[in-house]
Structure formats: structure tokens, C-alpha cells
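Ops channel
N.P.: pipeline sanity check, posting one input/output pair.
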């Protein structure tokens, strides 16, 4: 069984893209959208992106440099 996890560079790249997607989705649908559903959608998006953030952080081998 191969138990290799992605390295530091891959983890940083994933966090960068997660940040960009989160900002875009919050502007479009979430807290910053200005719509009446902004609070509900913003909270749902926050929970989803927190889950993805934790999954990336704990699924990456930060001491290994590589993809």
C-alpha cells in the first residue's frame, strides 16, 4: 500500500487556490453578496471551506518538498 502524502508545495498551491475560490464564492453568493440570503449561504460556504482547509492541512506532509 502506498501511503505517500502530497508535499509542501502541493499543499501551499491547494491552499492558494482554496483562498481564491473562497473569496470569489463569498463575493458572489456569501456574506459580501448583499442579498437577503447572504447570511445563510455565507455560513454554508464557510463550513464547507473550513472542512476543505482542515483536510488539506492535515493531509499534507509539510516536511517533504515536492508534488
Amino acid at each position: 500500500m502506498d501511503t505517500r502524502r502530497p508535499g509542501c508545495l502541493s499543499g501551499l498551491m491547494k491552499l492558494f487556490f482554496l483562498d481564491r475560490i473562497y473569496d470569489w464564492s463569498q463575493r458572489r453568493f456569501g456574506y459580501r453578496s448583499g442579498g437577503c440570503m447572504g447570511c445563510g449561504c455565507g455560513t454554508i460556504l464557510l463550513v464547507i471551506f473550513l472542512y476543505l482547509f482542515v483536510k488539506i492541512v492535515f493531509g499534507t506532509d509539510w516536511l517533504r518538498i515536492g508534488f
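N.P.: looks fine end to end. The chain has one domain: 1-35+46-61.
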